[in-house]
Amino acid sequence: MDVNDAGRSGEPAEAPTVFPRVGYSVLAFLMFINTLLSVFNNGLVLGVSLRNPGLLRPVNLLVVGLAASDLMIGLCGSLVVTVTNYRGSFFLGRAACVFQGFAVNYFGLVSLCTLTLLSYERYKAVCEPRVGRRLSMRRSAAGLACVWLFCLFWATAPLLGWSGYGPEGVRTSCSLAWEERSWSNYSYLILYTLTCFLFPVAVIVYCYSKALAALRQLNKSVEPQGGGCLRQETRRATKMVLAMIAAFLACWLPYTALSLAVVLRPRLAIPPLLATMPMYFAKTSPVYNPVIYFLSNKQFRDAALEMLSCGRRAPRGSVGLAMRPLNRRRPPGCSGRIAGQGKVLPL
């Protein structure tokens, strides 16, 4: 059975004929580490949030939704790939291959779109605090529901014949059958790239750049009054935004580039290892998403340390993440108010 036939039928390879045995062992070890970190980090986010109801504010509900989808990527993606690489082939059968491709695609899209929604809500809170409705638990839950339904459409379409799921690369993991050369697959990949990658990237870059511009403007307005504290917060926010965008692109850009390469160059021959790496990059997102969006906040971090230490290390002060809008009419000074307004953008 050649690569195209395998992609159409979704049948996994029976033997490790495309990669050395030691290569499978290395991949199994790397994915084992990735699975441990993914499950631990996102399990910690969910555990801390359930243990501290005060954390479940509207914007933090989006972070909890992100952790839930990332945890499922770790369980349905990284964990399965660890076992199959250890065995040297996807031995679980066709149904399991299709299910894994669907699950990784679905929860990966949910994670990606939740990040987009999170950037938009932060933009609205910082730059347009008086426009529209204030973010509430109901609005956050409705946003998450729309994200999960939107992603369900794109994950279900290959099950109904628009593209498909099948083994990829070194034949130990399954995903979209991008190796299939057909117009049905090309049309899916093109629309998938436009709506599920390029549009989210544009929204994230726009929202965070506008939020940073608003902080810099506030920084200039308080400089005559001594705005050193706000300048430090602005620099910290800038670094965090760059980390978010870099992590997002590192996770999804390789897979998108591979899909586009197949569409633009149908006869392009891609080595198995090179074809496998983009999806492995995507599976690393559950590791650093909790670090960037959760553990980088001191209040969340203190709550996590308290839970891990079984209460022996109590957090200082109350636990919560305030999402305050910019107050342009009353520029804060460096005392008290600067500190409060400096945390307006917990990026």
**Total E-strand runs:** 2
Give the % helix. 55-70%
Which class best fits the helix and strand makeup? mainly alpha
How would you sum up the global shape? Answer: globular
- Major β-sheet strand ordering: 1-2
Distance between the termini: 49 Å
Percentage of β-strand residues: under 5%
- Name the average pLDDT: 78
Uncertain runs are 1-16, 317-347
CA gyration radius, whole angstroms: 22 Å
Describe the structure.
A hairpin with a 4-residue loop joins β1 (165-168) and β2. Residues 1-16 and 317-347 have low confidence and may be disordered. α2 (21-51) packs parallel to α9 (285-295), α3 runs antiparallel to α9 (285-295) and α7 (228-264) packs antiparallel against α9. It is globular and about 60 Å long. The protein has 11 helices and 2 strands, in the order αααααββαααααα. 69% of the residues lie in helices and 2% in strands. It has 347 residues and is mainly α. A two-stranded antiparallel sheet has the order 1-2. The protein has helices at 3-9, 21-51, 58-87, 94-127, 137-156, 183-222, 228-264, 272-282, 285-295, 298-308, 337-342; strands at residues 165-168, 173-176. The termini are far apart. The longest helix is centred in the middle third of the chain and has 40 residues, at 183-222.
